[in-house]
Amino acid sequence: PLWLARFLHIPAVSVLGAQILLALIIVFSLLAAAGILQRISGWAVAITFGAWMFYTQGYGYVAHDHMALVIAAFVLPTIGAARFRDVGTASARAGWALRVVQIAVVLTYFYSVLMKWIASGNITHWANGAVIIWALMRRGAEWSKPFLEMPGLLIAAQWATLVFEFLSPVVLFLKGKWLYGAVVFFCLFHLMTYIALGIHFLPTVICWAAFLPLEKLVPKRFAAR
């Protein structure tokens, strides 16, 4: 990200600049959510949030949990404004945008396996290593400390993590209860890592909503207007 920021001649971040940028993101997000000048405000969110990512991710560790949210910020403005009365109306643009977000969500996990492989040189070295032990020692909650005495269980958890991350693209082909079960599984996984390690993965968790029929939550009295 730092090279791309230099290529685009994005100025270095300052405290005041970051505060102004954050305020703009909030204002434009509220306008876009309210459907006010939706395309303009939506693209403004994409641009300002993209700049925010350059600053937060361009000087060191890159948090891959933001990938799906960044992509969502850039594809949602292509849909146009949506109203409660649009419930039940088919939209190719909306379907395309949701599918792109869904693909970005599952690739977050699939690419994670590839990066583990590249970083370790051998995926079995990562799976049989002390990754979770190191994480628990470094930032684990007090209740999770007893697991340090169970290295075999932690190694099994690492193998399980690799398996479901590698198989994550399967979610794109699930429907009904199987799909909802997969969404719940991944969200519970992130809840567990947050409770145990303080790692929340919230941007990706939010984007899992792209797999859910949220339009069914709209009260009929609003949809009829």
UniProtKB/TrEMBL annotation:
Keywords for this protein: Membrane, Transmembrane, Transmembrane helix
Ranges that cross the membrane: 12-33, 66-84, 96-117, 123-141, 153-172, 178-211
The UniProt record lists the keyword Calcium: no
Coiled coil region boundaries: none
Record-given protein name: HTTM domain-containing protein
Domain of life: Bacteria
